[in-house]
Specification:
Distance between the termini: 65 Å
Helix content: 55-70%
Number of helices: 2
Structural class: mainly alpha
Order of helices and strands: HH
Strand content: under 5%
Largest sheet: none
Number of strands: 0
Length: 62
């Protein structure tokens, strides 16, 4: 293994909202769509978790 291999970090694919999409391939667009869907699921899960905590707290203080 060369030193160059050690210096390269593995960059995780990311998407910036509003970025220029014209230079992306269909495959790259598909990867970004999958990333965004996974993030939406993560956000919805957290929202549900916090909603349940809030409901439990509200019922405790009624």
């Amino acid at each position: 293994m060369s030193m160059l291999d050690d210096d390269r970090s593995v960059k995780k694919p990311a998407h910036e909202i509003g970025s220029d999409l014209s230079l992306l391939s269909v495959d790259e667009l598909s990867v970004r769509i999958d990333l965004l869907r996974a993030e939406i699921e993560r956000l919805e899960s957290e929202k549900a978790r916090k909603g349940a905590s809030r409901s439990a707290a509200e019922s405790l203080f009624r």
